[in-house]
Amino acid sequence: MVAVQHSAMDDRIYFKEARSLASAGFEVHILTATHDGIPKDMTGKNILAADDLGIMFHAVCLPSSFLNKVLKRVSLGPFYAEMIAKAKAIQADIYVAHEPQSLLIARKASEATGASHLFDSHESLFFKNWKDKRAMSSEMERLPYFIAANSMTAESLAKMNPKASSEVIYNASIIEANTLPSKEELLIIHEGSLPFNRGLELMMDSLVLLKERKVDFNFRIVGTLNGEEKTYFDGMIKKHDLQDFIQVTGWVAYADLAMNLQGGAIGLILNTDTPNNRYGGPANKLFNYIAKGMMVIAVDLPETKRILRQYGAGITLKDRQTSTLADELQNILTDEVTRMEFRRNAVKAQHDLSWETQAKKLVSFYMKIIPD
Fold it and tell me: Exposed (0-12), middle (13-18) or buried (19+): which is 86, by Cβ within 10 Å?
């Protein structure tokens, strides 16, 4: 697995895909780029040995000189040469690129070793970076296989290369499922970081309105706020006296995520209507909420909306107005019958939308590529 823009222990790359493949008997290596050439986890801690499943980690130093940084931007120079050399030395049967900028490395290594290569597209295709756009236009037609995290992305990639074999693998949850949601649980949760483009202002304005209506609620943010967002958030808390209603956990290690979602009844997905938000995902939090037997209240994002409709596991807001979200939250908090029906539907959806199910599809796809 090759990733120049992700951590070696990225949620999807390591915790889901790599560990599932290793458990199925594959020998897995993860090659990444770091400032010092030492593999890192999501916190920046060094990874100095193989893990408990035998997954091996490798890294190449990111360029430090101005010239080599410029060369890297055009996929040239010692950085790309070393990434390709390290990938070739692993002697893999299949090289998996986890972003467009890794496609050249995976292809060059596979050509040199007689292996196959694959693109794992788990983010939006609406790239702002010209390097990503160029990589997609130059590499997609040479790609024999790809995996996409949603059907819209799969359809877009198939138009670029209709000859490639593909599979949709949802970024489903690996956390332990909650199959017995309780009517006593009323906690509202937003999981993940909260920049403005994930609906921070809509969320805060709606919570202020709930307080003004004297609706009893408790809200937990499982994640962090930084910079301007934190300044805004702290100001809203102080201005509207919300400190007794809202808890912020701070950054949570993936292994501790389930514990911090405990007690949640309603999960929010409030991303703003940008191309990246609209056509990426579905967000990891959707699957985490469903795994914990929570109902979901989401804005209109195509893949999220389709899943919620298919499984009856939540509500898609008709618009992004403050009063609309506040009304839905108030109704759900006070309507036990409806709330629990959504939550029971989430429990039913857990089988299809669990990582266990998605991992079987993943392993089966790899077995077709490497039949022996």
Answer: middle
